[in-house]
């Protein structure tokens, strides 16, 4: 028996070794490779000290460049006045706060008001209803496609979001108008959107399956759209329960900067929009993008990237960063704030409200380098726009070149009274989008706007919503 088992054991050992060898040949880590890899950590006293420090502390605290930390100038040569900081709380509505803050500053300046705010919850209500319709109508439009079709998958993955970008400002405000903050106030669900969003998305996905089933049974488009209307009634009720019901009209007293009443009038949301904003938001504003992974001086459009089914797809001009700075400076010099978005989490000291690529020295701490440029970071999903704020100040040197920038944020009061300061080098690397009044665009941009836009897919990761 013994002589019989030895060959069998040897056979299985050989098979195991062969399988292991084949695995290594396909890219696995061999014992020889592992020994080589381990040489990167020698366990010297320096290595141990760094390991002890990192294991017991926040990496950002350890990586602060102390020389750079002490060079922090908060003076700005050109600045648009701002009154009061807004707070989006635990919601993804930065795009909405940012857009409203642009128009808020203009209204305050025009009417000499104090800390005036537009209601953020009012347009948010309509945004959520319109996005629900956008999803359901998309399901109807794609009813003949298989469930695993790329567009159908994208719709079911993204039935609703509280995030967005400037297209939402133009889509929602131009259709539903605006109201003052005190006419429709914030609720727990508007400031903490996750649970409400979860339930509405769950219901929308259920409705989406129902519409596809009705279509598979041969129901006409008219019948499907009748079902959609009933479904939107359910969504409307859920929104009212969470956010309150939007007013159809209201009476409001405008006050001056000292708090004295100036005028009391009855408004509708659209008449209030016309008086205190009064612009063609769809055609008067141009989105500029700095995306080095795509060709510059080109016009692009993102398919299905809008906040209303009957709205306008997000369209932008892709430009070198210096071209964008030129228009940003012109706008600030003319006391006009702008919708601005960036990758806010990179090289950010929240306690000081500072964004500076030289602020953290990760390379020295980790004993390596991080050398990807902006194009490579975009291509590898290491960076992209994540947050919208209101660009309001620039500090120019004697030659008119920017040294640093300031934005009005929507995270409540904090460092720099709720404003963030970014160095010009940080602006180069992590700024992505800027929306400017078309009166500030250059002749070059005017020519680009004449192009037929290149259509990009809705699921392109570069166009995730800002929150």
From TrEMBL:
<dbReference type="GO" id="GO:0070005">
    <property type="term" value="F:cysteine-type aminopeptidase activity"/>
</dbReference>
<comment type="similarity">
    <text>Belongs to the peptidase C1 family.</text>
</comment>
<dbReference type="InterPro" id="IPR000169">
    <property type="entry name" value="Pept_cys_AS"/>
</dbReference>
<feature type="active site">
    <location>
        <position position="409"/>
    </location>
</feature>
<keyword id="KW-0788">Thiol protease</keyword>
<keyword id="KW-0645">Protease</keyword>
<keyword id="KW-0031">Aminopeptidase</keyword>
<dbReference type="InterPro" id="IPR038765">
    <property type="entry name" value="Papain-like_cys_pep_sf"/>
</dbReference>
<dbReference type="GO" id="GO:0043418">
    <property type="term" value="P:homocysteine catabolic process"/>
</dbReference>
<dbReference type="Pfam" id="PF03051">
    <property type="entry name" value="Peptidase_C1_2"/>
</dbReference>
<feature type="signal peptide">
    <location>
        <begin position="1"/>
        <end position="19"/>
    </location>
</feature>
<dbReference type="GO" id="GO:0005737">
    <property type="term" value="C:cytoplasm"/>
</dbReference>
<dbReference type="InterPro" id="IPR004134">
    <property type="entry name" value="Peptidase_C1B"/>
</dbReference>
<keyword id="KW-0378">Hydrolase</keyword>
<keyword id="KW-0732">Signal</keyword>
<feature type="active site">
    <location>
        <position position="387"/>
    </location>
</feature>
<dbReference type="GO" id="GO:0009636">
    <property type="term" value="P:response to toxic substance"/>
</dbReference>
<feature type="active site">
    <location>
        <position position="94"/>
    </location>
</feature>
<dbReference type="GO" id="GO:0006508">
    <property type="term" value="P:proteolysis"/>
</dbReference>
<protein>
    <recommendedName>
        <fullName>Aminopeptidase</fullName>
    </recommendedName>
</protein>
